[in-house]
Amino acid sequence: MNIKRGGKLALILLVSCMLSSNLILAQPSKSTGNIRNLYTTWVKLALLGKNQAEIEFFFRNIDGMSLGRIKERLRFAVLDNLRRSGLKTMIQKSSDVDDFNAVVRKIITEIRYMGMEHDPDLKLSIKEEFGVVLERL
Hints:
- Residues 1-26 form the signal peptide.
- Keywords: Signal.
- It contains seven helices and no strands.
- With 137 residues, it is an all-alpha fold.
- The chain has one domain.
- Helix 2 packs across helix 4 and helix 5 runs antiparallel to helix 6 (97-113).
- The longest helix is centred in the first third of the chain and has 24 residues, at 2-25.
- The protein is elongated.
């Protein structure tokens, strides 16, 4: 009986620590090591299905410079993932509208995967590098 009570207490402590750690990560910090943690938190929130506006609201206490560095790193990650997936080859080999729609779906999936749906700089970078215009996302 005492073991069950101790297990419940440990579970409650574990859950409360997990919930409070997200709030701690959203606080502004001047250390560069924290940028990596904020980047990881952004990606985790994106994987949970949060869009860019929701994630930015979560990071509302972060200064603009740190948030800009996180977004820059996310942009580079999206572009690098698209390069590595052979997107240029897919674009060159596309022969009809269905092939091109597959390319656009792949780009949109990667953008949403990183939670960067409303980032005009990322869309411009994709347009410059791959020649694909994303007007309605």
